[in-house]
Amino acid sequence: xxxxxxxxxxxxxxxxxxxxxxxxxxxxxKATPHLLPRWxxxxxxxxxxxxxxxxxxxxxxxxxxxxxxxxxxxxAFLTPKIDPAGFEDSDGDDGPSLPTKNSEEFxxxxxxxxxxxxxxxxxxxxxVAMICTFFDALNIPVFWPILVMYFIILFTLTMKRQxxxxxxxxxxxxSYGKARYxxxxxxxxxxxxxxI
Length: 196
What we know:
Strand content: under 5%
Mean pLDDT: 82
Oligomer: single chain
Radius of gyration: 26 Å
Structural class: mainly alpha
């Protein structure tokens, strides 16, 4: 009895999955540095989704769920990776934290949800919601003004809590990177040792 110890070659479906997965990752990697075109694409998707919902007059539950999910993503985008509330009573050597005094060293804001992952999850959610609008079984009848009111209340309370947190721990989730200083302007004059 001889046992064949060589592994079986991967199947056709697995090869197709790996090819599609690699191609998908390739295009994501190519899109990473292009911040503005990515967000323009996402806004176009949002407009297309809302136009579809508006003209079809339905899928309000899907839209409400999408709004809740996007709000959750946005809150994660605004929140620091390491919550300063957790280090309030500690010695400070437990890990990096945001500066709370002017004398402390500046550390760049690190998000719990980085911008690219925020964009990617945002875009995937819009695409999934758009696909859901093609199924009549998901068009549950509901009085949509109540959903709008619930969402506005939820958004207001959540953002109020987030802004209070930002004020209490003195952080701003939007930074424009390291400060850049301009040197002397070039006036076109050549200064020599004799001119001084």
